[in-house]
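Predict both folds.
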Amino acid sequence: IAEGVSGDCKWVIDDDGNLTISSESDDDIADLGTWAGDSAPWSNYRDSITTVVFSSPVNAKTCAYMFKGCSNLNAVYLDNFYTNEVTDMSFMFAGCTSLEVIEFDMAMSAQDEMFSQSRDNFLTGNVTNMASMFEGCKSLQSFFLKNLDIHSVTNFSDMFAGCSSLDNMNIT
């Protein structure tokens, strides 16, 4: 459907709606480019995206508005996605009305925790803004994030607003 380059990363949306983000080179970890506001590199194709996979190590500088409005996005697999430099995760999944699964390990079964930190790649210690991060994710039923470091976060406003199916949450 579409492809492009952002920073040191290549992104491709195939005919099935799978957005795959990977290193464009053989570096150990590739830097994903930055964007302003609601203009992630794949944002013009957000209605086509059903799944997101990071197929090689990718380091993000921002997550703000990253997948906002991807209304057909069902699953996000965050293996190989590194966030230790991120300070803004606002609106990251806002408006992802079909989002059901956010996982770190693609081998996890459906009965396993839907959002569980099993590695040290999804770090939130530098994040200050999580406002509206999951706003409108009406299909998200469970949210589990172990060892969530929120000591720097100053804005949680509407983080789970409109998550009408969310009935199980653990952020120990």
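Second protein follows, with its predicted structure tokens after the sequence.
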Amino acid sequence: TKLGPFLRSIIDEREDLKPNTRRNWLSAINHLVEFFGDEANLLDVTPGEADRFWQWMFNKGLGESTVSREVKRARQFFRVAVRRRLVPENPFTDIPTPAQVNADRQHYVTIEAARLLLDECRSPSQRLTIALARFAGLRIPSELVGLLWSEVNWERERFTVHAPKTERQGKGIRVVPIFPELAPYLR
């Protein structure tokens, strides 16, 4: 079985993939195909070659979090190959995949900083988007696009959020309080 066609077939078979997941999987596939070649035989992807792939991504300048994420996806793809009995073992099993937290990218947005940003917004919808992210903790854009005015309960000061990222874990809906900082932007 050839690597490129096999990997693309995994995506083609999954009609349930959300657009971001599809895009992320394609990124991993592109890295695998760039390193191993589209026509590489799955059996030629050995644990030693997987180690070389891991190092190649670092040499390419990718960050530790990106490399970790791509290896996890490669492991996932080869798990399918093992289950289909196309390869005897998963060559990515023993590659370390440290936590994908990049502390340098984390930044606490203070209420003061959020208010400065809100003051610069040109439209009510921009202000509402920033307020929902900062004061209600919504994921933007995935949770924003599913909001419905009919699911805002002013009497109980709550609204319903549809969370595509967590729906497979049975947590696709949550109820969020309308905090005093958020209320004026919703109104």
